[in-house]
Amino acid sequence: MKLNVIKNRFIYLSISGMLFIASLIIMIFWNLNLWIDMTWWTSSEYTYSKLDIEKVKTEINNSSKELKYNEKEVINSTNAYKISGQNSLTIVVGFDSSIDEKKLSELKEDFRNKTLKILENNDSTVRESSYTNIWKSFWDYIKDTAVITLIIAIICITLYVAWTFSWVVSWISSYSFAAIVVITLFHDVLISSGLYIFASNFFPEFKIDTFFITALLTILGYSINDTIVIFDRIRSNLQEWARKKEKLNTVINKSIWETLRRSIFTSLTLLFVLTTTFFWGPGSISGFVLVMIFGTLVGTYSSIFIASPLLYEMNKNKKLEILKKKVYNPEDKIVV
């Protein structure tokens, strides 16, 4: 039995609507598990003669948990690593950006002094060789750049779709294809973000960082690719079936069925690679891969069950006719 997406479209749209609203609530009201490059952070570099790095890391992590303001932990994350081939240790600390700047400045200095004392207790020759203090302006720059990049990418994709799907059939504007692309892209990005933020609140290792932004941009590219394949088949069938006076829902259902296997197999192949990388790949990119897994699932769903039903809803009352292009007559002359 063939899949009748248009008949059950309100079920699929309702599922997406609930996920969309839930994701929006999560993004607005839940705490964001930000990584160092998305917070107000400090970076200190120390030289030493002999230091037990693992012991120092444990002591610094314990010290970071003790630093509190209004009974709330001030430090989001700490990362200590040794520079290969050198007796040099770098400690990067991310702080809660919701704290007043003046008070946060005092807390940063307090933790800086405690860290130096811990290191000196383990090795009296330790010296702080450099100290970098990043404030709100840097985080705002990263956030604004990410938002602008996403918006520009969506605008460019929309303009491309509007141009590509011009000259389909009468009364179905190419801008309806473009408008649906904008809706589905926002849908995919928002729900993927909501799912990731939901997961990050239970698994602290999944941070929101620059890899997270990169994953969202990658999702845009994958999602639009799948949607375009289905839309292209709908366009081909519209031009053919308009001559037969077929109904729009029949054309769309047939087009979905013809591309369904391709969409599912492509997504399963990608999911196999992503899942393998998630469990056995480098831990540093696990967050990126998890966002991609969510994006692949949501993008495949929206391409099949959201984009096509929306196209039907926007054009269901329109009569399908072959678009007639004006034929140039060489006999026509311009009289001056």
Query: What is the share of helical residues?
Result: 55-70%
In whole angstroms, the N-to-C terminal distance is 65 Å
Largest sheet: 4 strands, antiparallel
Q: Strand order of the main beta sheet, please?
A: 4-5-1-6
Q: Determine the mean pLDDT.
A: 82
CATH class of the largest domain: Mainly Alpha
Residues in β-strands, percent: 5-15%
Name the poorly predicted regions: none
CATH level 4 superfamily of the largest domain: Multidrug efflux transporter AcrB transmembrane domain
Question: Number of helical runs?
Answer: 9
Number of domains: 2
Shape: elongated
How many E-type strands? 8
How would you characterize this protein structure?
By secondary structure, the protein is an alpha+beta fold. The chain folds into two domains: 9-30 and 165-317, Multidrug efflux transporter AcrB transmembrane fold; 39-135, Ribosomal protein S10 (Alpha-Beta Plaits). Helix content is 62%, strand content 12%. It is built from nine helices and eight strands. It has helices at 9-29, 53-66, 101-122, 136-164, 174-200, 210-241, 248-280, 286-305, 307-315; strands at residues 40-47, 68-69, 72-73, 75-82, 88-95, 127-133, 169-170, 321-322. A four-stranded antiparallel sheet has the order 4-5-1-6. Helix 5 (174-200) runs antiparallel to helix 8. The longest helix has 33 residues, at 248-280. The radius of gyration is 27 Å and the shape is elongated. It starts with 8 loop residues before the first helix and ends in a 14-residue tail after the last strand.
